[in-house]
Amino acid sequence: MAAIPDDGIMIGKVTGLLAEYAACIDGDELERWPGHFTEAAHYRITTAFNHARGLPIGIIDARNRNMLEDRVTALRKANIYEPQRYRHIISVVRLTGSEGGLVQAEAGFMVIRTMIDGSQDLFVSGRYLDSIDFSGERPRFAEKLVVLDSDKIDTLLAIPL
Amino acid sequence: MSEASIRPATAHWPNNGLTRVPYALYDDQVVYERERERLFKGPTWNVLGLECEIPKPGDYKTSFLGDVPVVLVRGRDGTLKGFENRCAHRGALLCLERFGNAKAFTCVYHAWSYDHDGNLTGVAFQNGVKGQGGMPADFRRQDHGLRRLKVAALAGLVFGSFDAEVPPLEEYLGAEIVQRIRRVLPRPVKVLGYYTQTLRNNWKLYAENVRDPYHASILHLFFTTFRINRLSQKGGIIVDASGGHHVSYSMLDGKPDKNGGDRDYDAAKLRADDASIGLKEPGLLAGRDEFGDGITLQILSVFPNLVIQQVRNSLVVRQIVPKGVDRTDIVWTNYGFVDDDEELAALRLMQSNFVGPAGYISMEDGAVGAFVQRALPGTAAETSVVMMGGDGATSQESRATETSVRGFWKAYRNAMDI
């Protein structure tokens, strides 16, 4: 791993980005969600099983920010799913590298899903494998790979992780 | 084995036909157990996986036939074999991994071991220790093999059956279904990835859902909202003679509908009022006519547990695994072909956004079965209505029909003898 200057400060910045990111999803401000990504960002949700074997299929596979905006439009106007909320619990951040102006970071997460009838379950747990662009006014994800620990998705995955 | 009798309400089919389905079939433990014995372990072929998942001798895969754990293995001679994933001694699971390679299968509990054919080849301390204990002198290993499956493959797709009397696979499927399976499996296959969707409903609600083209453009509003799909597009429904297998297919030009839709859609108020809605990234709609016949959507089912889906260039084998009266796992195996070029490989990944638990045109299927399941209390004597497109279970050109749902119940009643 390339040397990363002032690790503590960088960890703080990544932590802040993840906190903002989770707050907009958990707070049902999905319209703000794509803004956390660069225009050419790649956002993909996969499983640990597929990831370990290099199997490329995604549960969601968005190749740019426009596709994230399309997904929000679809969730708001087209797709049908019961009202539900997420609560992200994100672990401490670990920096894993830096390259070409991008910082690589990893964090574990859990999402507790609350349905409208009040029932709650641990919906998913996994890892964020992020590549973050700090060159602009605010940090944005150039790549966000969401690796789920389990293969199983309960019912459906509508709201992004 | 003896079977408990089915509750009268469950066995009551108004007019003895297929246009009413008793709700009691979806939450009855006796029905569930009868399905295991008569239907899944009966003379049916159940999909277990793809040949390419276990390419080398000794490669194995664990799966389920109905809810019964099974192992699929490639023998030394390259042939496919299958058996129940349960030691013949005390009944522990034999294989715990999803995939692996083994020269022999040895139970972790007491180290009984079996060859690729399921023959018992070793019993730990069979002759006792220092002349004490051990198996009786008349114990014969050949009497204690694993329960074997019949295994057959078609176009790289592997099926198993517990019933020695099951008809040959191609006869079971019929010529039309065989041709439609070969259509989406014409070349050597490679797996692109897996995921499993857990449904909070009885397995039959999913089996019906995939055979129901009536709901497609009503529940799944993605296409209509973005003005892409219409039921009036050219296509049709094929139902085989048994009723249990079906194909729903359509031809779709892949271009946004500039004319604002036909009158039936507008009359049914299925369109979004906001005509300005469009995709910011139209690349999602790109596709290739890879099979050369213009068909862009083909949903195929084989009774009881297989669905093969082609949504443009997204190809998936879905295996239905019952997990109790009100739980079902759908195992999605996304695939492509070994010789896919770069562009086609990229199209498959892009279009995977349409399908699966987060799929634009499939996520609702994960929830709608549970909407029925949760509304079951109080329906023990009631039936659902399956009248769209008449009372028959034969092929039709219109997709405004429930003919293949009726076909499912025809095959189901036959298999269950109710």
Describe this structure in words.
The mean pLDDT of chain A is 95. The longest helix of chain A has 20 residues, at 7-26. Chain A has 161 residues and is an alpha+beta fold. Chain A contains 3 helices and 8 strands, in the order H-E-H-E-H-E-E-E-E-E-E. Chain A is globular. Chain B has 2 domains: 46-154, Rieske Iron-sulfur Protein (3-layer Sandwich); 186-416, Naphthalene 1,2-dioxygenase Alpha Subunit, Chain A, domain 1 (Alpha-Beta Complex). Chain B has helices at 8-11, 29-40, 169-173, 175-184, 203-210, 216-219, 221-225, 263-267, 342-351, 363-374, 403-416; strands spanning 20-22, 46-50, 59-65, 68-74, 80-84, 99-101, 105-106, 113-114, 120-122, 148-154, 157-161, 189-199, 235-239, 246-251, 295-302, 306-311, 314-322, 328-337, 383-385. In chain B, the strands form 4 sheets. Chain B has a 7-stranded antiparallel beta sheet. The interface between A and B is large, with 35 and 42 residues. Strand 8 (152-154) of chain A pairs parallel with strand 12 of chain B, so a sheet runs across the interface.
Topology readout:
The complex is a heterodimer of chains A (161) and B (418).
Chain A: H1 7-26, E1 37-47, H2 48-53, E2 60-62, H3 65-77, E3 84-90, E4 94-99, E5 102-115, E6 120-133, E7 140-148, E8 152-154
Chain B: H1 8-11, E1 20-22, H2 29-40, E2 46-50, E3 59-65, E4 68-74, E5 80-84, E6 99-101, E7 105-106, E8 113-114, E9 120-122, E10 148-154, E11 157-161, H3 169-173, H4 175-184, E12 189-199, H5 203-210, H6 216-219, H7 221-225, E13 235-239, E14 246-251, H8 263-267, E15 295-302, E16 306-311, E17 314-322, E18 328-337, H9 342-351, H10 363-374, E19 383-385, H11 403-416
Antiparallel strand pairs in B: 1-19, 2-11, 3-4, 3-6, 4-5, 5-10, 7-8, 8-9, 10-11, 12-18, 13-14, 14-15, 15-16, 16-17, 17-18
